[in-house]
Every structure is written in structure tokens, then in C-alpha cells.
Amino acid sequence: MSSPSTLTAARAQSPSKARERTLWALQIIAALFFLAASASKFAGAEYNVQVFDKVGIGQWFRYFTAVMELTGALLIVVPRWAALGGLVLSVVMVGALFADLALLGGTGIPALVALIITSTVVWFRRSTLPAALRSLLPSA
Description:
Oligomer: single chain
Radius of gyration: 19 Å
Helix content: over 70%
Number of strands: 0
Strand content: under 5%
Structural class: mainly alpha
Number of helices: 6
């Protein structure tokens, strides 16, 4: 039979393991979603062309958005860069939410769901963010 302290230690580890698995699941879901979204934009899917026409900035912004989505999708699955990837994708989703509500007449729900997922990753992986940002700066 296990001692009470062993059971307490096992219970203390369970939420951490469950949280870690949940975060990895969210990171993988986000990566797959944004890989598909960026591929669709790069491919010039008619829907995306029309959406970016309605936004009114130009088709160059569709490519820029696709690059940001692809970059974020790749970063979010690398442990050292996950928070930075989530941050990039969160910024993209804030823009998408604004565009959907203010310019396109949509509900904003898909962008909001994606924003919740990516910002959750940023929050729980935030301890890696300072080192990731420092590594982007040129060393003196």
C-alpha cells in the first residue's frame, strides 16, 4: 500500500501533467489550423482574395498575413519559441477579430476561438518569452 505522502505527491503531479498535455494539444491544434490558413492564403483561395479585397489594404496584406500565420504555426510547436509563436498568432487574431467585426460584418467567433487558444498558450508558456525575445536581439 502507498504511503499518504506518496499519494499526495502523485496527486500534485497529475494536474501538472494534465496541464502540459492540454497545452501541447492546444499548440498542435493551433499549428495545424494556422498551417492550413496560411496555405489557403498563399494558394489564393477565392474566399481569401475576396476577404482581403473587402479589407481594402491590398492583396500584399494577404501574403503578409500568411507569412505571419506560417511563422507562428512553426514557432508554437517548438518549446523554446512556443510563447513567441502564440504571441504572433494572437496579434494576427486580434487583427482578424477587428476586421471581421468592423469591416466584414462577421460574428468574429472563429477569430475569437483562435485568439483564446493562442493567448492561453502565451499565458502558460510565458516563462520562455523573455529568453526568446532576447535571442532575437543582436548581441553587443
